């Protein structure tokens, strides 16, 4: 029996067990994927004990992504660049390998939602400069987006994120957003604005060209005010759930040996759960 986990603090809200449980059942795999609440002070010992606990690997989420980056024995170049790890793989010799699948997960989601030609839509404007923004800037640059502009309430953090893709990404003053939107093909909200319990993201989408797409990484609610405004303008609107589903694919493939599909049935199941 192959065992995997998701570790966070708190962890009760995580939908990852539902996603991996769905795929385990679909493929008839004798495996488990369990939710584990690990306090930050316990995380180093948890990581060191993974092999003895019989785990093949797992996901880490808030607040452990930076600690997992610091403690993993080896890292993918992508995780190294982003500075955060969300997927751990335990090798035969017990060494723990760290990857970041948020970047390819977000891009795979855009492939599904917009078609694989989306990097050609034009400049990207990223709102926010947290961990999700770091992964998305690295992902977009990998996919060849020619110019990425990063706007954040705290400008120093925008500059730090833009520095991850030199020559491609640059910081953008929050006050200059409106003029930047005139030339944008893709806008991505990575801030927590619009999330249940948070204020909405007040962004006037009027300057965006007709062919632009608007993506939100917030998935609770699924239809944020930002996405509703994009649809009203006739723009492509990409919700945040797909990133969560697609980032899970590489981990499942590494632990359980089958590359799973993000199907409409899986999505419907998570949407139903989010509604409860
Ligand atoms: P994550 O790692 O999940 O991306 P984070 O590091 O907490 O999360 O980042 C949250 C993002 O939302 C940040 O860009 C934050 O802006 P600051 O860097 O200025 O803190 C942004 N954010 C949160 N609340 C906001 C608000 N009320 N107005 C504007 N931006 C906000």
From TrEMBL:
Outline the extent of the Quinate/shikimate 5-dehydrogenase/glutamyl-tRNA reductase domain.
123-192
Q: Which gene encodes it?
A: aroE
Official protein name in the record:
Shikimate dehydrogenase (NADP(+))
Species lineage: Bacteria, Pseudomonadati, Pseudomonadota, Alphaproteobacteria, Hyphomicrobiales
Looking up Pfam families in the UniProt record yields:
SDH_C, Shikimate_DH, Shikimate_dh_N
Which family is this sequence assigned to?
Belongs to the shikimate dehydrogenase family.
Pathway(s) of this molecule: Metabolic intermediate biosynthesis; chorismate biosynthesis; chorismate from D-erythrose 4-phosphate and phosphoenolpyruvate: step 4/7
Role, per record = Involved in the biosynthesis of the chorismate, which leads to the biosynthesis of aromatic amino acids. Catalyzes the reversible NADPH linked reduction of 3-dehydroshikimate (DHSA) to yield shikimate (SA).
E.C. number = 1.1.1.25
Give the reactions, separated by semicolons, that this protein catalyses.
shikimate + NADP(+) = 3-dehydroshikimate + NADPH + H(+)
Listed NCBIfam families: aroE, PRK00258.1-4
Q: Which CDD domains does the UniProt entry name for this protein?
A: NAD_bind_Shikimate_DH
User: So where does shikimate get bound?
Assistant: 14-16, 61, 86, 102, 219, 247
């Amino acid at each position: 029996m192959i065992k995997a986990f998701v570790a966070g603090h708190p962890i009760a809200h995580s939908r990852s067990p539902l996603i991996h449980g769905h795929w385990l059942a679909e493929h008839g795999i004798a495996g488990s994927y369990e939710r584990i609440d690990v306090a930050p002070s316990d995380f180093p010992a948890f990581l060191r004990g993974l092999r003895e606990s019989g785990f093949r690997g797992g996901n880490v989420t808030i607040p452990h992504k930076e600690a997992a980056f610091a403690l993993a024995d080896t890292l993918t170049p992508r995780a190294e660049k982003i500075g955060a790890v969300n997927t751990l793989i335990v090798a035969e010799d017990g060494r723990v390998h760290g990857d970041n699948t948020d970047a390819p997960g977000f891009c795979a989601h855009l492939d599904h939602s917009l078609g694989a030609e989306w990097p050609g839509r034009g400049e990207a404007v990223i709102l926010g400069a947290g961990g999700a923004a770091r992964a998305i800037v690295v992902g977009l640059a990998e996919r060849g987006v020619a110019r990425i502009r990063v706007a954040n309430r705290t400008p120093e953090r925008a500059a730090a994120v833009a520095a991850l893709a030199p020559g491609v990404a640059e910081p953008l003053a929050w006050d200059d957003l409106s003029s930047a939107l005139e030339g944008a093909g893709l806008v991505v909200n990575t801030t927590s604005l619009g999330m249940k319990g948070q204020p909405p993201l007040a962004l006037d989408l009027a300057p965006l060209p007709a062919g632009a797409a608007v993506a939100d990484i917030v998935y609770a609610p699924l239809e944020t005010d930002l996405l509703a405004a994009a649809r009203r303008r006739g723009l492509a609107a990409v919700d945040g759930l797909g990133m969560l589903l697609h980032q899970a694919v590489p981990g499942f493939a590494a632990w359980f040996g089958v590359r799973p599909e993000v199907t409409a049935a899986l999505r419907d199941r998570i949407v139903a759960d989010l509604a409860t």
